[in-house]
């Protein structure tokens, strides 16, 4: 008897089974909340840090800088959301940034060289993005070619075509003031382009998170063979995801034209890696382990705020590039580990 009591004493006081589950459940809920909103908390921490850092506090918290940061994320946010759709079904689209460049040039060329009405130019710019998306969709979804290789090839091909068409000359003449004002002015204290980005984000978030279309895309991304066995049209949905990606990249191109006041031949392509960093960072938040629209936008804002703070604090020119690269590597690693943990890859 004494030996039994001694062993029980060494193990510590007995637990009450009636009280243990709630504690475990509460701890689990706190852990899940920390996982879902960790990136948001990190963003708040970065904002607080640069807001009190003497080297950056005055400029970082100014209305002008807030507006500049928000305006700067407009194109990247749309590109990040565009990349989410094919990633949701297990495909890559590395051509989104190059597609936005083509759309920007098409939009600007119609107004600058052909004096087309702005509305027609905008529609054709978006249509150019849809066309690129359709080509990707035919090659990847119908012909079943490797999306990684195809979209990398497209990302190399399109800027070359832009250089050939423009001969390296920016298209900045003939762009009407209303379009330029849309890219540069504010409404209710926020950049006008942000209102468009917010509307697109809301629509895309709803489509992926609250419709059968979105659920089926995620099912394909989880296991395409199993999805096909239960009757999900894998080919058609993959085709649609790549086409939507191209269309959204087309919208980003039109925003790029409005922001730049024309079509710049070297603009947009360098936005691919910030957009991808935002997407993979976003996969660690809101719906951890899964590519999601809200997470991608939060990731975009996190990268932009961090780079802005570093620049205003006097960081060297190479620091933003290193930060973007490190953010992409860390985001890919964390999102992959979370996906394995949640059984989504």
UniProtKB/TrEMBL annotation:
One of its GO terms (cellular component) is plasma membrane. Residues 1-25 are annotated as: Disordered. InterPro entries: ABC_transp_permease. It is found in: Cell membrane. The chain crosses the membrane at residues 39-60, 66-87, 94-112, 118-140, 147-165, 185-208, 229-256, 268-286, 293-315, 321-339. The keyword Transferase does not apply. Residues 1-10 have a biased composition (Basic and acidic residues). Pfam families: BPD_transp_2. GO terms for molecular function: transmembrane transporter activity. Its main location: membrane. It is a multi-pass membrane protein. Keywords: Cell inner membrane, Cell membrane, Membrane, Transmembrane, Transmembrane helix, Transport. This is ABC transporter permease. It comes from Actinomadura spongiicola.
């Amino acid at each position: 008897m004494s030996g039994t009591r001694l062993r029980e004493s060494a193990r510590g006081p007995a637990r009450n089974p009636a009280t243990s589950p709630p504690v475990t459940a509460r701890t689990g809920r706190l852990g899940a909340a920390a996982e879902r909103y960790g990136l948001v908390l990190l963003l708040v921490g970065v904002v607080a840090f640069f807001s009190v850092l003497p080297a950056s506090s005055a400029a970082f918290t100014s209305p002008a800088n807030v507006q500049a940061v928000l305006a700067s994320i407009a194109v990247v946010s749309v590109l990040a959301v565009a990349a989410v759709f094919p990633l949701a079904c297990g495909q890559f689209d590395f051509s989104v940034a190059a597609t936005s460049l083509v759309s920007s040039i098409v939009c600007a060329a119609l107004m600058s060289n052909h004096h087309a009405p702005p509305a027609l130019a905008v529609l054709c710019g978006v249509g150019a993005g849809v066309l690129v998306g359709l080509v990707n969709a035919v090659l990847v979804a119908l012909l079943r070619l490797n999306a990684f290789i195809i979209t990398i090839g497209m990302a190399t091909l399109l800027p070359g075509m832009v250089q050939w068409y423009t001969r390296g000359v920016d298209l900045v003449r003939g762009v009407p003031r209303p379009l330029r004002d849309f890219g540069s002015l504010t409404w209710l204290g926020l950049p006008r382009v942000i209102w468009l980005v917010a509307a697109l984000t809301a629509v895309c978030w709803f489509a992926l998170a609250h419709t059968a279309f979105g659920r089926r895309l995620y099912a394909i991304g989880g296991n395409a063979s199993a999805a096909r066995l239960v009757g999900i049209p894998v080919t058609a949905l993959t085709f649609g995801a790549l086409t939507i990606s191209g269309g959204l990249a087309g919208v980003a191109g039109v925003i790029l034209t409005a922001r730049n006041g024309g079509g710049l031949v070297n603009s947009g392509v360098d936005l691919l890696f910030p957009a991808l960093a935002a997407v993979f960072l976003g996969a660690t938040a809101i719906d951890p382990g899964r590519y999601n629209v809200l997470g991608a936008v939060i990731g975009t804002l996190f990268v932009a705020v961090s780079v802005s703070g570093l620049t205003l604090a006097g960081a060297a020119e190479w620091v933003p590039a290193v930060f973007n690269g490190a953010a992409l590597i860390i985001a890919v690693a964390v999102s992959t580990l979370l996906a394995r943990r949640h059984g989504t890859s």
